[in-house]
Design goal:
With 337 residues, this protein is α/β, with parallel strands linked by helices. The protein has helices at 15-25, 31-37, 58-61, 74-77, 97-100, 136-139, 144-155, 174-185, 199-202, 209-217, 236-246, 266-278, 302-315; strands at residues 101-103, 106-110, 113-117, 161-165, 192-196, 221-226, 251-257, 282-287, 323-326, 335-336. Bound molecules: pyridoxal-5'-phosphate and iron/sulfur cluster.
Length: 337
């Protein structure tokens, strides 16, 4: 009982894990700091940033043009004062997702695939995010809930594809993810593993040897759906992270959100498609904004959205034209516009 007190060493983390966790911890976390780092005068910011905080990793900050308050990347992360204005038709759960929870942490809205909200955390905070008000603490499947997820999947043999989402699943450790995937591989009928993640692009340090290991080692066919809204997001660091993911054999796809002042021009969409293709990623979806409270200043009308897609179709290769969709609560899939 009288043993001298001793400092218990923490489990050593692999170097690459420390690198990305430190980069995430060091992300810019306030509007004033964001402006200062970009050489801008401090601007008024939304009070909503107290609940849904600013979060911008250095790698993303480095792609923003200093001194330009209208930069298309800055606009995605700066809490515009318009966020605080209530708008009719904009709500905190626009997709009625809380009703679609099959078991806590598992959403099955569409046949054949189910989506796991593994964590509420993200490597970046996008101001237009439809999940910005989502109560993830209640949704995260851990412990007994994780068993319930596996039981649900075993009881639903039509579910062949499992989507790891969130939040962003790649904010979790590789140890946790590898363990989840090992359990999922034990569900006999599962064929495909899909990741929905923005992290490889906004925090390229996250693409570690351990991540590449479990991703290339799984028996499941893998798809990684990244989230890039503007060509300027794809700098050399992002491209090499994507190349490493592609090296695992994963199919890379992109989903973007149509955002006023970010990518609502035919030039911006064409450049995005070409930059994605050069990085080995095919455009998949272009989402119409979900009417989430605080995001109304990003809205583009359906008429304008259709016009943009028709113009894009008329001037570029078909595989560079994403499917323009919107999510309609209760529909059996994304709804084409
Ligand atoms: C978007 C989404 C999917 C995936 O839909 P795809 O059209 O296959 O890309 C699956 N489940 C949920 C709950 C979704 O929101
Ligand atoms: S990374 Fe995705 S889930 Fe996270 S804040 Fe951005 S849009 Fe939302």
């Amino acid at each position: 009982m009288n043993k001298p007190a001793r400092i218990i060493p923490r489990t050593p983390q692999p170097k690459h894990a420390r690198d990305w966790q430190q980069a995430l911890a060091a992300a810019v976390d306030g509007p004033a700091e964001l402006d200062r780092r970009l050489g801008l005068e401090p601007r008024p910011a939304a009070g909503a940033a107290r609940d849904f905080r600013v979060r911008v990793p250095e790698a993303f900050l480095a792609r923003i043009r200093p001194g330009d308050p209208d930069d298309p990347l800055l606009r995605q992360v700066f809490p515009d004062p318009h966020e605080d204005e209530p708008r009719p038709g904009y709500s905190t759960d626009p997709l009625a997702e809380q009703q679609a929870m099959a078991v806590p942490g598992l959403l099955q809205k569409y046949p054949g695939r189910a989506l796991l909200t593994l964590t509420g955390a993200c490597a970046i905070h996008c101001r237009y995010c439809f999940r910005r008000h989502f109560p993830y603490a209640e949704a995260s499947p851990r412990g007994a809930r994780w068993q319930a997820v596996l039981d649900y999947l075993r009881a639903h043999p039509d579910v062949e594809e499992i989507i790891l989402s969130g939040g962003d699943p790649l904010t979790l450790s590789d140890a946790r993810l590898a363990a989840c995937v090992a359990d999922l591989e034990g569900v006999a009928q599962l064929q495909r593993l899909r990741l929905h993640t923005r992290t490889p692009v906004v925090l390229p340090e996250r693409v570690t040897p351990a991540l590449l290991d479990w991703l290339s080692g799984t028996r499941l066919q893998t798809l990684v759906v990244v989230h890039v809204n503007h060509a300027n997001e794809l700098d050399a660091a992002a491209r090499s992270a994507l190349a490493a993911l592609r090296g695992t054999g994963a199919q890379l796809l992109n989903q973007a959100v149509l955002l006023a002042g970010v990518n609502d021009s035919v030039q911006a969409l064409e450049q995005l498609g070409k930059a994605l293709l050069a990085a080995g990623v095919l455009p998949y979806y272009l989402h119409q904004l979900d009417p989430v409270q605080g995001a109304a200043h990003f809205a583009v009308s359906d008429a304008r959205a259709r016009e943009l897609l028709a113009a894009l179709q008329a001037r570029t290769s078909g595989y560079l034209v994403p499917r323009l969709v919107r999510e309609v609560p209760g529909a059996a899939g994304k709804t084409p516009l």
